[in-house]
Amino acid sequence: xxxxxxxxxxxxxxxxxxxxxxxxxxxxxxxxxxxxxxxxxxxxxxxxxxxxxxxxxxxxxxxxxxxxxxxxxxxxxxxxxxxxxxxxxxxxxxxxxxxxxxxxxxxxxxxxxxxxxxxxxxxxxxxxxxxxxxxxxxxxxxxxxxxxxxxxxx
Length: 154
Description:
By secondary structure, the protein is α+β, with helices and mostly antiparallel strands. It is 20% helix and 47% strand.
């Protein structure tokens, strides 16, 4: 009588164990074939506090050229200095703002060339450091805005 209960439990575990194993193998094969890849990643930005990137106007091309559109959210006119960007792996980018003195709420462009890039569709992570100054009356203060842009190479 004791052997019959053990046999039922063992049959239950074996049946469902094999079924789970087959589902896992099929899932891994589908993942490796790229069936779950829904396309490239989207452009995202993190860390920017007062000077906000406009993602629709920003990107890094496979020819190593970066163009970013930013909005001055400081609340007053600023003077943007030459910025720098760093890709994962230490690749650097020299970035120049145009115009260099955007008023509050105005857009400006930050553009430059990185020392190395990749292939179109590869994902990049660009850390941007953008020094700027704010002059209110006779007082000028220096600040640095920084953040990370991540997206596919165009």
